[in-house]
Amino acid sequence: MSISQYNGSAMIAMTGKGCVGIAADRRLGIRNMTKACDFKKVFQVNDKILVGFSGLATDLQTLEQRLRMRCNMYKLREEREISIEAFGNLVASMQYEKRFGYYFVEPVIAGLKADNSPYLMSSDIIGAQCFKDDFVVAGDTAETLFGMCESVYRPDLGPEELFEVLSQCLLSGVDRDCLAGWGATVYIMTPEGVRETHLKGRMD
């Protein structure tokens, strides 16, 4: 088993019409043993940026804390919030800095640009960026999630439709993986704000 699969994870991010969404499971495990079902994997950086991490839980928490510190330093120095494009480059550069002893984490960044158009980016463990205009998947369940998303996703979904598609794709995907699941959290970001919803899933 890869060290990136040690704690288990499943994550999807999708774009809609003037909105983005990101969904992640809530399980924290040690291989096949479940330790908690309320583990947070998605974080709100500011009003325009959501970032999710799949991979090793300890590296996830370390990288999130260091990113939050860097964003606070940026805000103090520049006297403005970091843009999502700059944040994506910051995440990639921090991962590349550790390329010889890297974080076992695959970040997924979703948010809105200055003109409120959707932005979606993922990267591997050394910071190689991948930009998409429809959806990205990450975690142990990536193959199953990818098939579900390809079947159900369509462009220009509204916030409510995006929530429904994200929820169904994630819950269906984690049903086929014992290392992920046990509930999910879905975040929908629009220019008006972020809505967080907790979903119940299979608990076996």
Automatic annotation (TrEMBL):
**What's any GO biological process attached to this entry?**
proteasome-mediated ubiquitin-dependent protein catabolic process
Q: Which UniProt keywords apply?
A: Cytoplasm, Nucleus, Proteasome
UniProt xrefs under InterPro entries: Ntn_hydrolases_N, Proteasome_beta_3, Proteasome_sua/b, Proteasome_suB-type
Which lineage? Eukaryota, Haptista, Haptophyta, Pavlovophyceae, Pavlovales
Entry superkingdom:
Eukaryota
> Would you tell me the protein name for this molecule?
Proteasome subunit beta
List locations, semicolon-separated. Nucleus
Q: Which organism is it from?
A: Diacronema lutheri (Unicellular marine alga)
Q: Name one GO cellular component term.
A: cytoplasm
State the Gene3D superfamilies in the record. Glutamine Phosphoribosylpyrophosphate, subunit 1, domain 1
In this record, what's one Pfam family? Proteasome
